[in-house]
């Protein structure tokens, strides 16, 4: 196994920053992945000690490459191949923002369920009959 040449997009996919390799390549081409402040292409070779700034939809990452990982592995193994050096204030902002921009409602809040709707309709009809 030759670890000398490993593409940035493949590495970011392998350490689970992106769900798919094509998402990683698109982020590289879109200028969302930077090495020392300069955007990198998806085909750029990764070397140990590189520090990458990565912007994803979910959060901003600053990582340092500790070891090369050519194949995707489970999360508990993948975190051994990089060091997350994201500034603490960026991490706090991301946690707060992620609650509001998920696109999903919080559980038990919002529209009533079918059963709750029937109970409400029954309750409203009972009230109306008592007033007559």
UniProtKB/TrEMBL annotation:
GO molecular function: DNA binding; ribosomal large subunit binding; single-stranded RNA binding
Gene3D superfamilies: RNA-binding S4 domain
GO biological process: cellular response to heat
Pfam family, one: S4
Basic residues bias (residue ranges): 102-115
Sorted UniProt keywords: DNA-binding, RNA-binding, Stress response
Domain RNA-binding S4: 6-67
InterPro entries: HSP15 (IPR025708), S4_RNA-bd (IPR002942), S4_RNA-bd_sf (IPR036986)
UniProt region (Disordered), positions on chain: 102-132
Family stated for the protein in its record: Belongs to the HSP15 family.
Protein name: Ribosome-associated heat shock protein Hsp15
Originating organism: Chitinophaga skermanii
